[in-house]
Structures are given as C-alpha cells and as structure tokens.
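User: Structure please.
Assistant: Input sequence and predicted structure:
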Amino acid sequence: MEQITIAVIMAIHNRKAKTLTCLQSLIACKPENVQLNIYICDDGSSDGSETAILSFEQSIKIIRGTGNWYWARSMYEARKFIMENFDELLWLNDDVILFENALELALQFRIQNPNSILIGQFVDPIRNEISYGGYMRRNSNPLSYTRVVAKSGPLSVDTFNGNFVLIPNFLETKLGSIDGRFSHAYADCDYGLRAKKLGVSNLVLPGYIGTCVGNDTDDSGSRLRNVVTWFSKKKSPIKSQIRFFRRHGSWYWPIFLFIPVIRILIKGK
C-alpha cells in the first residue's frame, strides 16, 4: 500500500475542548498508510490549549500567534511553517468532528480525481442538516452564493468553506497559499474562486465527512449595532471586502459594498 504524507494546518483560539475533540477524531480516522504531520497556529489562546495539544502522541507543531491574527492569517502562518515534504495539504477547522472513514473516503476519491481540490461536507448535529460544504455563484455579486449538497457522487462547485479541504501538493504549489491578508472571512471562498479561474476543479465529496455546528449570526441588536458588527474584524472588515471584491467582482464592484448595509438598515439584519 502506497504511503501518503498529509500535512494538516489548523487555526485555534480558546476552544480547547473542541480542538482536542477534533484532533482525536482526526487521529482516529487515520488510515494505516497515512502519516499525519499537524501544524497548528494558536492565536493567543489562554485556556491551556497548547499544553493539552502537546500531550498527544502525534507529530504536532505549534506556531504562536499574536492574538490578533484570526483565521486567515493563522492558517497562512501555519502553512508557512511547513518545511517537510508532503503529498496532500489538509485544511481543518478545529470545531469539526470527523467520522471514522473521513480520510479513507477522501483518499479513495483522490485516486479517481488526482487533479482536484476535495471538499468535505458537514452535518449540523443539532439541526440534522448541512452546515458547511460547497457553493455555486448566483450572480455577479461576489458574495452571492447558493449552498449545494453532493449526494450520490462528487459535485463540482465554484467555491467552498474551509472546514475540510484536501489539496494535492502540486496544485498547492500552482495556486499558492491561502491569502493571509484577509482577516477572518473570505480567505476560503477566495481560494476556491482563484482555483476555478485557473481551471482547477473544486469537488465536494458526497455524503457527510463529519459533524460541525453551523455558525449562527446574532442579529437581535439595533440596526446600527448590526452594521458595526458587519464591518467587524471577525465578520467583514472593509479592507477584506475591498480585497475580495476587486479580485472577484466586475468593474462595478464598489456597489456591492453597500448592499449588506442597505439590507441591514431596511430589514434590521
């Protein structure tokens, strides 16, 4: 059986219990012919995450962030830290719990799809519906997407969430790293769109690869508060929006900067 080395990158911040559960599920689903090298960027955790992670009998390296890097920059720094050779790069969010056959399933589809980015779908265990996966663009608005579900076979999509993304080494060399100049959001969507522009197929794996609770947005505050929240660093800071729109929008992209604000002011959310 061919030996495969997977370099795993993760970003964490003060979610020790979730992080440990995620790592346990990752290690538990590792096929015998796979070597996992895990690189974790701990962006200023104060809950003892690092000490707990280092108790694992597994190749794990920790990069310490400033506490102000958030997801995109943390993932970028984790990727930059990889010096060893690898066959596949795996993006993994620390709030997912992988099923026992997750990696085996992904690698089976890798044999059939050697030139594609593979994306895992997750089910929300509370709502019993899809929480993260792949998306198709609706229109010229770079932020307008429809979530799709791959059921009986792999499904080609425009872009994806970054919860479980498997990228072969040669493709990652071609596409480059995740863009750390984004703040928290947009970097995964940006990567998928960049790949598609270069003719790389983004394939969502059929079925669910694990569980992950969906991200609820609290829109119960005032309209002004919700506008401020929209532009916050963890949501949609203006610099990240402009970077994303200029890269993936049409010449009239500035219009789309105001659509969410108008929607919030009218509807309150």
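The chain is about 35% helix and 25% strand.
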